[in-house]
């Protein structure tokens, strides 16, 4: 159904499980090679081009790979305009680049969006929260709230060690409800970080607003389900709907490209919702059933390699080619006059990041996009 078109049609191919499943299905049903597109960056740690090329060769696609040398200083203001709203997911930029590359050859492209949220693809996130929930059930509530939560606030933070070993995060999460802990892990800024960053005037204006409310109502609708099914439902209603699909829609339309997501067909969604958790996340294997499906059709593809994601080398860019642009945006007189954030708090984030003490790349990007959006949609008539 998604391949029906009277214009040239192709697919995004990252080499991951979801896009590989889509392209494999397309190849079986197409009389000619499928046109596939992938992009990567010069930094090998942020490039999946080799994996995409291996899948393309196995499926015999007409593959086009591009190593992007981005001009973020020129591209970012234009993309902020296309996004319409303050949108802080930095992967919008590589999504724009792959859409632009695909549009050179096709008018419609199929993507693998939805696979992670339907079949439990976020291995570290889902795995850690399942483990924490098991521990939460073993520890009495008064101890969790009265002992572990205060310890979590006092314990020093460290981003240099693996997530499961960050005792501050583990203690803080165990001291809270399953729902609140998941919300915190999905937030760019925790409540205490917001209080340190935002001005007293702004905090007073939003004192009656609780960002968690939007999350909690989705959790409440599936309160009797198992923990994995609950977070999948919440991700489907929030992360997928308000981030992933918005990003792909705006960035593809900015290139006059139509993107279709066959994994989000209602029949596949209904099928995925009927599966027991063990067929989605088995042991330490995320997306178990979908990986089995792909492995049987692409035996040469390492389906169990760590999930990479479609990310920018943002930490290094903010210390390099984007440094001057970002500093000018964050510390301009115009930005200081907005009244949202304390300049001295932003300066601490910036200095920590530049010294390599901690990476605040996502938080700095969010503040930068907010300022660019203001300049384009609020300051300009």
Structure summarized in a few sentences:
Strand 2 (35-41), helix 2 and strand 3 form a beta-alpha-beta unit. The radius of gyration is 22 Å and the shape is globular. It is of the alpha/beta class.
- Morphology: globular
Query: What's the CATH superfamily of the largest domain, by name?
Result: HUPs
Percent helix among the residues?
A: 55-70%
The total domain count is: 3
Give the low-confidence spans.
none
State the CATH class of the largest domain: Alpha Beta
Q: In words, what does this structure look like?
A:
The chain has helices at residues 17-29, 49-59, 72-83, 92-103, 115-119, 123-138, 141-154, 167-174, 178-185, 191-197, 200-205, 212-221, 227-253, 266-274, 288-297, 314-317, 323-330, 333-336, 343-355, 361-377; strands at 9-12, 35-41, 62-68, 108-110, 258-260. The N and C termini lie far apart (44 Å). Helix 6 (123-138) runs antiparallel to helix 9 (178-185) and helix 7 runs antiparallel to helix 8. The mean pLDDT is 89. It is 56% helix and 6% strand. A 5-stranded parallel sheet has the order 3-2-1-4-5, sandwiched between helices. The chain folds into 3 domains: 9-120 and 235-297, Rossmann fold; 123-188 and 212-228, no CATH class; 314-377, no CATH class. The chain is globular. The longest helix has 27 residues, at 227-253. Strand 1, helix 1 (17-29) and strand 2 form a beta-alpha-beta unit. The chain is of the alpha/beta class and 381 residues long. It contains 20 helices and 5 strands.
